[in-house]
Amino acid sequence: MKRTSRISAPLRRVALCAVVVLAATSASVAAADEAAGPFGVTAVVGASPASARVGALFGADKAGNLSGNHFCTASVVHSRQRDLIVTAAHCVDGVGESTGLVFVPGYRDGQAPYGVWRLGKRYLPDGWAHGQSEDSDVAFAVVAERDGKRVEDVTGSNRFAAGVATGATAVTVTGYPDSREVPVSCTNKPVPRSVTQQRIDCPEFTGGTSGSPWVNGDHEVVGILGGHEQGGSTPDVSYSVVLGREAAELYKDATGD
């Protein structure tokens, strides 16, 4: 399971040999951002317009004390209202019901360079709402305006694309491991696990990376880290629902189109 067990859980400092890999060169990170390789290498993501679209989720009660308190990942996707994020259903279903949730795009080292945005209405597929099917582990949430602005106007967005064949191109996965205060990313080519699930081999995508977007070279979100085993039971293999008709209909509901 890629998400942490509690939204208020403290950072788990994990000593892993892959720290060397995570210290990859900036050139490697740039190549990964372009979905061009090197494949299967996980590296810290530098601050950029592309990384600003990805952020961490927190309980609203942690908005004034962000450091060490993120628990899942989400990203901004284009909508007519310019106020929509996508994540895994298991990241937002029943989580933060008493206090609410906030999204911090571009989160880094306890700082919120693009602001702290409160989540409003959440959209969950029927397959998740009526049985928590692993084949329906995707969700959208509307983000409230902040200082008269909408989140997409501040961070930009990727497009949400259902119906893209698994492995049609390489994708870059970007997320926030709960053991780190910066995002990491990895580029590789997904492969089918089943008709409804896809997998990717990328090292050190640990707890906290649930909800990470899988973005292709056309800046389209074609997967969301989650699904089988809520994203995977090991750090080196991650999963996503194949974004098909159910995901497309959910996006339509969330955008009102």
Automatic annotation (TrEMBL):
Pfam families: Trypsin_2. The keyword Lipoprotein does not apply. Keywords: Signal. It comes from the Bacteria. The keyword Mitochondrion does not apply. It comes from Streptomyces sp. 900105755. Residues 1-31 form the signal peptide. This is Trypsin-like peptidase domain-containing protein. PROSITE patterns: TRYPSIN_HIS.
